[in-house]
Amino acid sequence: MIKINLLPTEKRKAERTPLPRFLLIASTAAAFFILLFYNLWILKRISDVVDETKNQNAILVSLKPKVDEYERLLAEETALKNKVKEIEGLINRDVEYWRMVNALWDVIHSNPRVWIDDFRVLDARTAPGELRRVDPDSKDAIAYGVTMRCHVAGDDVIEMTKFRKALKDHPLLQEILTLINFNVMWNVTDEKMKEVEESHAIDFDISMFGLATPPKRKAPAPAPPKAGSTPIKATPAPARAQGDTK
Predict the structure, then answer these.
(1) What is the pTM of this model?
(2) What is the CATH number of the domain that holds 190?
(3) Which parts of the chain have pLDDT scores under 50?
């Protein structure tokens, strides 16, 4: 049945909103305002993060020179520590390098036809690599060494062999530079020399190494008695009497 209200509008009774519809409208409005405030809060947070990122980037740019300076100082510190370590290793080592260099110079000076144009001292890090290069089969443990780029006037290997033998037979070098490269690579070059009447020279390398555990020195043989001296004979101890307990 359809009811029609024929009263004028001003005389009609106001209709109330049904409760379910009112609750739906109220919940929709509440959700809208909640989402609105949440979105505003998120936008504010985003703005704050963007500003903080800009500030941190500005600080990072301002610190870049200091970071570069720190890395430079750190590299210098590392290099100095390594240098100090090497120096301490040289100080604490039993080898006196000045004696070694003097011994090498004595041998070079006694061979006037030989000269060198490169001399390097090898430490515990570089010496094993040089030993493997000149003698891959060596099992010796070494602690230091030297390398020399040598030249000898002429094209005869006798002078080169003589020089190497002099190095190997030197008493001091036998103790501190025990090993010498066995295989020698050499070549003859054209070279005019005013000091000697030679038009050629032999170029070769020498590598010498000191053992990590120095060889034991041999005890010197007793000196022979001087001429005219009477040798002292050992006098046997007197025999003890039977039953003597002293």
Answers:
(1) 0.47
(2) 3.30.70
(3) 219-222, 229-246
